[in-house]
Amino acid sequence: MTLPARILGTLVAGMCLAIPALHARAAETPASPGTPVGTTPLAPALSLPGAGRALRMTYLSTDGITGRGTVPVTAEVILPPGRPPASGWPIVAWAHGTVGIGQACTPSLHPYSARNSKYLATWMKRGFAVVATDYQGLGTPGVHPYLDTRVEAYNVLDGVRAAVAAVPGLRNTVMIVGQSQGGGAAFAAAAFAATYAPDVNIRGTVATGVPYFTPELGAQLTAAAQAAGPAKYDPLVVYMLYLGASLAGRDPSFHPEEAFTPRAMAAYHAASTTCVGEMEHKARDEGLTVPNALQPGFPKALAPAFAAMAYPTLKLAQPLFTGTGTDDHDVPPMLQLSLVRAACAAGSTVQAHLYKGLDHSQTVNASLPDSAAFTQAVMAGQPVTPQCAPVPQ
C-alpha cells in the first residue's frame, strides 16, 4: 500500500529540507543518543484508527554500525484519544517487520497494513501510546543495516527516550513489542537495555515471528530448503537478498557473486530499492529458490551480516512473551523455538505460545488475547508463568 504521490512528495520534500538543518545543529552542539530533534504532525492516513495526537519525530540514536557517534532516525508517536492519565500514557515501543531497505520503504511514509493497524490499535485501546521507529537508514540518509540487532536495539531504545522528552503526556513505562524483523529488534532491545539504556523502564517484551540465527541452525535451514526441491519458493531468498544488498552498502569488500547465482543477480540489484511486497513477487516470477539463487559459499560471503544478527545476551532482565505459528514459512518454527529454549536455558523468564495452523502473519493478531494477560501481569509487577516447551493451541 502506498501514499498518493502528492502526499508522499510533500513528506519526502519536508524530510530532505530538514536533514541539512539537522546535521548543522548536530555539528554545532554534540547531542546525546535519545535527543529529540523535531516533530511534525502525522497525516491522518498514516495514523491508527481512533487515535488521538499523532506525530512524526526525528531524534538522534547511536550509530549502530560503528557503535559511536549519533545519526538521525525517524519514528511515529501515536497517542490514544482523550486526556492522558495523571502519570502519562505508558508506551508500546513498536519494532516493525521487514519492509525493504530502500528509502521508499520507510514505514512512517506509508499507512499501516490492515494487520498492523488492527494489532497496534488494540494496544492503543489497552491504554498505550505507540512509539514506532523506522530504524537507521530508513527515513534518513545512509544504509539500513538489515537485521543488525545492535542498530535495531539502539533505535528502539533511543526512540523511547526521545518521545518521553519531546511529547507531553507520556511516561517512561515501556512494553517492547515487535514482529518478524521487529521481533528480533524487540528481543535485541531488551537484551541491550541493561548496558545501553538502563534508564528506560521496560516491563516486558512481546515478540512474534522472532528470527534467531546460529551457524548450526543456518546449516539445518539451508539443508531443509534444498531438500524441498528446486520448484519451491522460499521467503528466505528475499531475506538473503536484502542481507546482501544491505551488506554491500556498508562493506566495499563484499562480492555478491560469491553469495548469489547469476540467475539471482537481477533480483539482488533490485533489492536495494524494491520494497518487500514487490520483491516477493519478483522472486516468485523469476522462480528463485534457495538451490538456484544461493551459491554454496553464501554463508561465508554473508558472514558479517549473520554475525550482526546475534543477540548480546539471551538472559533478559524482564519477562518475554513469544508467539509462533506452526505454519510459519518466513521464520521457521525451528528457529523460533530454538531461541525460546536458549533463552530459557540462559535464565530468562519466557512465556512461549505456539499457534496451530497459523502462518507468519496470522500469528500476530491471534496472539493478542494471550499477550493481553501477559501484559497485565508484567505491568502490575506480578509473576509470569514460564512456558519453555509450548504445545500447539
Write structural notes for this entry.
With about 400 residues, the chain is α/β, with parallel strands linked by helices. It folds into 2 domains: about 280 residues, Alpha/Beta hydrolase fold, catalytic domain (Rossmann fold); about 90 residues, no CATH class. Helices cover about 40% and strands about 15% of the residues. It is built from 14 helices and 9 strands. The protein has a 9-stranded mixed β-sheet, with helices on both faces.
Outline the secondary-structure elements.
Blueprint: H1 5-28, E1 36-41, E2 54-62, E3 70-78, E4 89-95, H2 114-125, E5 129-133, H3 149-166, E6 170-179, H4 181-196, E7 202-208, H5 215-227, H6 236-250, H7 265-270, H8 276-285, H9 290-293, H10 298-301, H11 303-307, E8 320-325, H12 333-346, E9 350-355, H13 362-366, H14 368-379
Parallel strand pairs: 4-5, 4-6, 6-7, 7-8, 8-9
Antiparallel strand pairs: 1-2, 2-3, 3-5
Helix pairs in contact: 3-4
